[in-house]
Amino acid sequence: MTAPTTSTTRWLDEDQQHSWRQLLRGSAKLFDDLNRDLEEQSGLSLSEYEVLVRLSEAEGRRMRMSVLADELVHSRSRLTHTIRRMEAAGLVERSSCPDDRRGVNCTLTPAGFARLEAVAPGHVESVRARLVDRISPAQLRQLGEIMATFIEDAPADEA
């Protein structure tokens, strides 16, 4: 008879597993619905909209591509594909960084800014209907606080 192997895996209990699956299903549904609403209203994906927002808030409406990728939590290759589509539509322009030839800047065009201004009210209404108005202000604050923990660096023993 062989001795049972010991596992160091800390399995999720029933309540933890339920909460984990609710997070997976709820976040997927929320972002799918928001993306669908945005595409139906404007022809923009949620990723494209977020690029427009980030650029509109940046100094000179310009950001280095690597910083933009980090801000959006996208891979650089995924962002490059998104920016290529947006550039073809005249919403953004890419240019070399003047202080670092290896770097690439992305700049919001006037047409891109106008598109954002036209689309933003509908998107905000969608966010309100699908999230903000469905939970209490305290729950929304708590959700923001919870999600902020995932933005911070992982503890040293998990990194």
Automatic annotation (TrEMBL):
A Gene Ontology BP annotation from the UniProt entry: response to stress
GO molecular function: DNA-binding transcription factor activity
One Pfam family from the record: MarR_2
UniProt domain HTH marR-type: residue ranges: 16-152
Protein name, as recorded: MarR family transcriptional regulator
UniProt source species: Georgenia thermotolerans
Source species taxonomy: Bacteria, Bacillati, Actinomycetota, Actinomycetes, Micrococcales
